[in-house]
Design goal:
This protein is an alpha/beta fold and about 190 residues long. It contains seven helices and eight strands. The strands form two sheets. A four-stranded mixed sheet has the order 3-2-1-4, sandwiched between helices. Strands 6-5-8-7 form a four-stranded mixed sheet. A hairpin with a 2-residue loop joins β7 and β8. α3 crosses α4.
């Protein structure tokens, strides 16, 4: 059974779906309905679920971590994500996306180079990311560093990136499955908005 919890933390609703100490889906929104709707859309088919009002310890900790990520703060925690239920390509793209460090962005094309497929295929995976903001799909932008799309809206994506500014000035490479992923300071995407 999948257990679903949501909590309002300082005006933002965070939701998490858990099963056996693994995160099945996570989300955030300005309303409880929005956060829960996102969770429900990312649940596996034909698996029973229940929405609880009082979070388990695991869920409470996860919800607190979601707020830390949302605030643009760094955490050194590995999350037990239920990735195996997803297609292999989706898993590869999400794992690569999880390697984008705080303070940096990369492009759909760069992820495609590191994982296979094309930029549009990567965009499709980003659009259906069941683990926002744990897997930081908001750090994936177009090749010209414009924001591209975002399920929560471009204003939300811009605000997330603004909170993640760290003043970096140089790009770098991150190892991903024996390949490299080129990442760039988040300031490249903020331009006059940052």
């Amino acid at each position: 059974m999948i257990e679903i919890y949501s909590k309002n933390i300082q005006g933002v609703w965070f939701s998490v779906a858990c099963a056996r100490q693994q995160i099945v889906a996570s989300s955030f929104a300005t309303s409880q309905q929005g956060a829960l709707s996102s969770i429900l859309g990312n649940l596996p088919v034909n698996v029973p679920f229940e929405i609880f009002h009082e979070p388990s310890t695991f869920a409470e900790d996860t919800l607190a971590f979601l707020k830390i990520i949302y605030d643009g703060r760094n955490i050194d925690t590995t999350f037990p994500l239920a990735l195996k239920r997803l297609p292999t390509y989706t898993q590869r793209v999400l794992k690569a996306t999880s390697q984008i460090p705080l303070g940096y962005v990369t492009s759909y094309g760069s992820i495609a180079k590191a994982t296979g497929g094309g930029p549009r295929a990567v965009g499709s995976v980003m659009a259906s990311n069941p683990f926002a903001p744990i897997i930081p799909c908001h750090r994936v932008v177009k090749s010209d560093f414009t924001l591209g799309g975002y399920g929560g809206g471009l204003r939300v994506k811009l605000e997330l990136l603004k909170r993640e500014k760290r003043g970096f000035s140089k790009s770098k490479e991150v190892a991903v499955n024996g390949n490299t992923l080129q990442v760039f300071p988040v300031e490249y995407s903020l331009g006059p908005f940052g």
